[in-house]
Specification:
tRNA uridine 5-carboxymethylaminomethyl modification enzyme MnmG, 5-stranded parallel β-sheet, flavoprotein, NAD, tRNA processing, MnmG, 23 strands, alpha+beta, binds flavin-adenine dinucleotide
Length: 619
């Protein structure tokens, strides 16, 4: 086997697969080294991609030529647009996946990328030569060389599974942990800490009484994820909804002391926004019921994922609590739920490129950086893969700004603020969220992706065609002028409830709240646009143009100082007027730019003004 590469990616989960795909697409020799080739792209927990904030990340990954959106479009068994009735900034796509189709799709996509080699093995050590990173050594002693290594080890580093008072070492149920590498990272003084997450038991669908449950079908037409997908061709299934009740809560409360979490077996912190059912019952004691979604795991399996009852209670208690719910009275469980504790590395130790400040050439992406979720992992993976490949080619790193992408928001949050609980994406994390919509992810990122070498010819052609269609649709609406004396004015007046008093263009009408694209084209007897994504784009652009322009002004104002570099040898004690606390924080973190400095917790706007004056004086 060849053992010299430019980039080695350790781990074939969601971060690792995007990292490997991005690096290889740039043309550098890339190795994806993973514990088990059969678990490439495996969904450790819920069989779903997207959701609010997360769907935005998936669209961005897609706009940059990544894998995740294409894979879910080849594996999705239910697609929905969440928040469809709300503003475009918070609308988000979510899809249930057929777990095994998803894995197969990821593997197929990777196997079709030139320069990408797959190898099954467990990284046990980083190969070092005179303090320089030169590759990895597997647990069986095989040496694989590369100047750039990306760690995407997920929940596997020092992983320990908990169920009641039982616990054992594992990366997730059924897979061994990565203990040798965890040990080495600790010895090398990387900032290692622990987090936890959990998963619910799985149910045999044949034992569920669907007749008493509310069904939730997907949307029709199906909202695909990828900008490249014209149509999803997979049979679609409904989810079902049940609820916890007083009896469920009684069972949990009576057995709380047996839960790994509350019985004192787990000390680390779990995701606040994805709490276990024990947590929900304790923290929201006033709530008498929680909604539980019964999500099918695939087309050719009866396995069902009950979303909302992640637990570390002993298995017999899990059976009781599941059976206390409507429709689940005779439920047969196929797998127990469990919690898992694992190591993560403090992401404040990384540059925004996701390269380690401590060890040049080492990159980290995904759950190892303290995030939770497939989408967060995948987006970081893409960035790390891109930047590792750029480093291999002696090119400078590329990182999107907070105003350009949720990916930019996430990376900036991670490297400047760090975390004390698993980090997941929300639209509320973005200050410029009107700009960072799902619908315009391609407009924001595909041209940049093309320049970086991530976007292939087919995607670029499709993108360019969409741009042309949008421009000609805009022009069609702009050039259609209606005068008060035209026969069309009567129909418009009927719709508005008042006569037209001056000339208007169709574009001006579309800006008004009284119209949407469909009603306007109907009244004006215009043919609709063949591509609904183009008409949606035009409508959003028109309706929100005022707000978008205002946000653009804000971005430009902030950009004037955001990217200003702080000299590497900056002596913060020499900045006049800076408090000792702020001086210590800045000295510890050594931000590269004024923008990064402004987002360090405790660094006030007043301190930033002092820093700005000082940096300007020095330059
Ligand atoms: P993973 O998907 O975990 O992939 C890691 C990969 O690295 C695996 O392929 C593994 O085999 C490989 N690997 C590890 N160590 C080595 C090594 N030394 N050498 C070679 N290969 C190695 N997310 C949510 O958003 N919500 C949830 O409720 C949720 N619950 C979860 C519950 C459980 C029990 C688990 C295990 C995960 C849960 N997650 C949840 C997290 C979600 O699975 C992860 O966020 C996501 O999979 C992270 O992707 P990743 O690529 O970083 O890591």
């Amino acid at each position: 086997m060849q053992n010299e590469f430019d980039v080695i990616v350790v781990g074939g989960g969601h971060a690792g697969t995007e990292a490997a795909a991005a690096a290889a697409r740039l043309g550098v020799r890339t190795l994806l080294l993973t514990q088990n080739l059969d678990t490439i792209g495996q969904m450790s927990c819920n069989p779903a991609i997207g959701g609010i904030g997360k769907g935005h990340l998936v669209k961005e990954i897609d706009a940059l030529g990544g894998v995740m959106a294409l894979a879910i479009d080849q594996a999705g068994i239910q697609f929905r647009t969440l928040n469809a009735s709300k503003g475009p900034a918070v609308r988000a796509t979510r899809a249930q996946a057929d777990r095994s189709l998803y894995k197969r799709a990821v593997r197929r996509l990777l196997e079709n990328i030139p320069n990408l080699h797959l190898f099954q093995g467990m990284a046990g050590d980083l190969l070092m030569e005179q303090d320089r990173l030169v590759g990895v050594r597997t647990e069986t002693g095989l040496e694989l060389r590369a100047g750039q290594v990306i760690l995407t080890t997920g929940t596997f580093l020092g992983g320990r599974v908990h169920m009641g008072d039982q616990n054992y070492a594992a990366g997730r149920a059924g897979d061994p942990p990565s203990n040798a590498l965890s040990q080495r990272l600790r010895e090398m003084a990387f900032p290692v800490a622990r987090l936890k997450t959990g998963t619910p038991p799985r149910i045999d669908g044949r034992s569920i009484d669907y007749s008493v449950l509310e069904a939730q079908p997907g949307d029709d037409p199906i909202p695909a994820f990828s900008f490249m997908t014209r149509q999803v061709n997979i049979p679609q299934l409904a989810c079902h909804i049940t609820h916890t009740n007083a009896r469920t809560h009684e069972i949990i409360a009576a057995n709380l002391h047996q839960s790994a979490m509350y019985g004192g077996h787990i000390q680390s912190v779990g995701p606040r926004y994805c709490p276990s059912i024990e947590d929900k019952v304790v923290r929201f004691a006033e709530k008498t019921s929680h909604q539980i979604f019964l999500e099918p795991e695939g087309l050719d399996t009866h396995e069902v994922y009950p979303n909302g009852i992640s637990t570390s209670l002993p298995f017999p208690v899990q059976v009781d609590l599941v059976r206390s719910m409507r429709g689940l009275e005779n439920a047969v469980l196929l797998r127990p739920g469990y919690a898992i504790e694992y190591d993560f590395l403090d992401p404040r130790d990384l540059y925004p490129s996701l390269e380690s400040q401590r060890l040049p050439g080492l990159f980290c992406a995904g759950q190892i950086n303290g995030t939770t979720g497939y989408e967060e992992a995948a987006a970081q993976g893409l960035l790390a893969g891109l930047n590792a490949a750029r480093r291999a080619r002696s090119q400078s790193a590329w990182v999107p700004g907070r105003h350009e992408a949720y990916l930019g928001v996430m990376v900036d949050d991670l490297v400047t603020r760090g975390l004390d609980e698993p980090y997941r994406m929300f639209t509320s994390r973005a200050e410029y969220r009107l700009q960072l919509r799902e619908d315009n992810a391609d407009l924001r990122l595909t041209p940049q992706g093309r320049k970086l070498g991530l976007v292939d010819e087919a995607r670029w052609t499709a993108f360019s065609r969409k741009q042309e269609d949008l421009e000609s649709e805009r022009e069609r609406f702009r050039s259609l002028r209606i005068r008060p004396e035209d026969p069309l004015a009567v129909r418009i007046a009927a719709h508005l409830g008042q006569p037209l008093t001056r000339d208007v263009t169709a574009l001006e009408l579309l800006r008004r709240p009284d119209w949407d694209y469909a009603s306007l084209t109907a009244v004006l007897a215009l043919s609709g646009c063949a591509d609904s994504r183009v008409s949606e784009q035009l409508e959003i652009e028109c309706k929100y143009s005022g707000y978008i322009a205002r946000q653009q002004d804000e971005i430009e104002r902030a950009a004037r100082w955001e990217g200003m570099c702080i000299p590497e040898d900056m002596d913060y004690s020499a900045v006049r007027g800076l408090s000792t606390e702020v001086m210590q924080r800045l000295s510890r973190q050594r931000p590269q730019t004024i923008g990064l400095a402004s987002r360090i917790p405790g660094v006030t706007p007043a301190a930033i003004s002092l820093l700005l004056i000082h940096v300007k004086r020095r330059s």
